[in-house]
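To the team - zinc ion complex, inputs and output below.
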Amino acid sequence: MAEIRSPRLLMEECRRYSAQMSELRTLLEERLHAAVGEAATIEVAEIEAALERMERGLYGTCTRCEAFLPLDRLRRMPHVQVCASCAGETRLSA
Ligand SMILES: [Zn+2]
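Output:
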């Protein structure tokens, strides 16, 4: 059964979420800078796509199965928008 949460808790959650998003945006922008400097075209495209997803409020979900991506994964690879299993990181067979 869904719990009714107090507006204050919701506000706190919302604030935490925005703080995480701005942290990840900063990471993305730093990476974008570095990738442009290295002329890493593919990475630039991935980072730009991730920033665009952020603009549309889609950032942080897998582009294939729509699962929420864990925050530690986003911190490590902020431009990667597929979950570990869709990325084949727990590879069975391709
Ligand atoms: Zn997935």
